[in-house]
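--- STAGE predict ---
source: upstream dedup step, 1 unique chain passed
mode: sequence only
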Amino acid sequence: MALAALAAASCGRIRPAATVSPDVTRTATPRFTPSLTAPLNDEARAWIEQTLAGLTLRQKVGQMTSAWVLGDYTSTSDPSYLEAVESVTRDEVGSFTMSLGTPIEVAAKINDLQKLAKIPMLVHSDLEPNLGRLEGGIFAPYTYGAGSATVIPANMAIGATGDTSLARRAGEIVGREAMAVGINVVFAPTVDVNNNPANPVINTRSFGEDPQQVAQLSAAFVRGVQSAGAIATIKHFPGHGDTDTDSHLALPVVKSNRARLDQVELVPFRAAIQAGAMAVMSAHIALPAIGQDNAPATLRKDVITGLLRDTLGFTGVAYTDALSMEGIGGGYTVEKSAVAAVLAGADVLLKPTHIRRAIDAVVAAVERGEIPMARIDASVRRLLEHKLRVGVIQRPFVSLEALRDSVGAAEHRRLAAEIAQKAVTLVRDRANLVPLARGIPTLVLTYAPEQDISAGRTFTTALRGALGGGTRAQRVGARTPRSELDSLGQGAQRVIFSTHGRTIEGEGKLAIAPQVAQWLDSVAAIRPVVMVSHGNPYVIRQFRNVGTYAMAFGTGATMESAAALAMAGLRPITGRSPISLPGFYARGDGIPRALPFPREALPTVMKDSLQHLLDRAVRDSAFPGAIAVVGRKDRILATVSAGRLDWKEPAVPDARTLWDMASLTKVTATTSSIMRLVDAGKVDINAPVQKYLPDWQGRHKEQVLVRHLLTHSSGLISWRPIYKEATSPEQGMQLVLQTQLDTLPGARMLYSDINFILLGLIVQRVSGQPLDVFVREQVFGPLKMTDTQFNPDKALLPRIAPTEVDPWRGRHIRGEVHDENAFTLGGVSGHAGLFSTAADVSRLCQAYLNGGTLDGVRIWSPETIARFTTVADSTFSNRALGWETPNGMNSAGHVIKRPAFGHTGFTGTSIWIDPANDLFVVLLSNRVNPTRQNSKIGGVRQAVADMAAALAAAGRL
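--- STAGE serialize ---
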């Protein structure tokens, strides 16, 4: 919808909050404290039923109809104002959508219209970047500023931060400022998965292209909005991301079948509904693969009632998108679309081109029996309940004075700036031009629509100040001829090209004009060109030669300032692309740039940065507690802990806290032991497993080598629930030995615990000692890892971080291995069972960085370390022998590269060792406390690794 909330300055005298006119009769207000979550009391339920019973059919349909109102100043005799008054008094609409206007004037007009309503109205607005939204329609922000409201960066900017806590806080600010001006239904967030680079209308309004990330950020944003008392509206159901048509201009066709909808488009809707989203807006899109029907989804009962309500279990209010849009209006009359939308299951008809005709059509359809009266009553009940819950029935007016304390508050603007800074993403820098060097003659080109006279001003000003003299600026646009472009670059040794293509509904165009794109790409072939996109992030596909490309994911002064400071090296660059563009960048790409600082400051900077990151992760409920250690082969750079050992106790983690290492057992204990035996000449990794385990029999098992176990290419299945089959450790091990191959060895890489259970057994058979005894005597003891052990003594319980509330064992696990199979095998196994501390694991990492020695004691030879930590077959997988290596998508993050090696543990543990840069990163947590369903650890692992590696590199400058 082409709706927003702020634009040109208002010049009229502000009227005080209105009182109810004597000619408006209202029912008694029930005693119900506004709440979006509290159960309705008897008085509230009685009010809903009494109000419903007192409405005529036409009034009921009016409650289901919404008018559109511009938030600008108008006199009471202005035609647009009189039209709005008529919608409220004669048509008795139940809601209206507020568009452009300054906060004070928006609030004043809402108060005036609420004064006229017999039943106070719901008021909605498109608030994707909050009240400061400057996208859509014909409006004055190209000339005037945004007033005093907070401009929240676009969803895709939030997606680039990957931070759900920022999404939640942004939603809270949107809800708080909306309620302050009288808007109680927020048409946000857009939860569409933007998986089509040619999409002209969703684009940066989406959180990104990964369904799971979009789901997490959408749910967080919804919780934020509704924590402020406003209703969040998720849109555009069932998904508007995979289209290259603007539904404001025509009906887009989405070819997704039901399976793809379930796997992609519906994932964020499910998450947002589970998070409590109380409203949904439909999409004007055709889904021919679903039911073989080309009708817009808004008008289809199988979509709005069947899919949304029956399948996803949505119980809130269903809004149509604007019925004035060509995506629906082009093929349907006002009457036909209104009736069809109600039959489909819509509760609110949004912005029909003619309100009275829409109401008349629905009334007539009810009277002739086409629409059941029960269908109408159900919608009105939902709407009346929402009015009670947001408090508009109890308090229909807002204070024009009090809103100044909330709208545009300093803390809100600080959050917007924080999001903007963390969103800046550098995905290409072939010549390492960023941060930009000072003193180089530079031409800053701003590419923007002619009427957008403010575009680029903040970016250019900030960049000039940062780069010093020799920087000049020029604007170009779609109509700039090639001859003029050729004359611009004279004397400039470097070109910075800043694009400002807004996502404007109904515009349908986001690309850069061909002659401009061709000229710039030709310049990039002969001199450095740095391109910064403030709007459409996909424009780089027009430029093969541009060597440096950064994305800010939004327009406006806040984003421009953040981008300029980042490019100049005055702010760090940490963003990760939430989208991909094949051939140019992948989702998750992002080249970090840390602020340079003196080498001696590295420990302080590292500690402060990690502390902030871990504290944020605790606030985001990624885990109850954690500890991170970053170090080199001869010293610790930073040890940082956050949170508590358990959500319900005060004990905090420290370097001596014992953590369930889970699958870190595979490398710290089992692989380290195998390496020790290889050095001793007692194990040959190219020998058959049956050489050491002759009782391991079965079809093709004679072909399995020890290296197949180490690289998870043995052909074994990924997992077997031994704990459900065995009643003793001995029986459990027999089941392991009896497990047959699923494929031939070497045919695939399939991560399997069974591989390492067998490796642990090899250690026992070859050494004549149980795994825990051997590794203690041969590895942990010599390295003085005094706290590292299997089956820790009960006396250590206060130091042990608890893990899951285990439904199988019926208790909260603490001091016994979390992994069920390892528990069944007696707590000592090659795949899991080890407990250790941050201090001990750090010593292990240092031994690896020192080529196998620590404090004069040698554990492994450098040759064996190199052999075990080198990728076995890069065409097959990124696995080394036992160890994992960086691949750009795993827990090593995006900065640490090979020959680094590491591993993760299911409970929330990970280590990465980077010999090329003399760096190790340890992160230990209990993210499974209280449930393993918590999957937020992935992003934290990457963020810790990225931050540690980037800061360590910056500290060398």
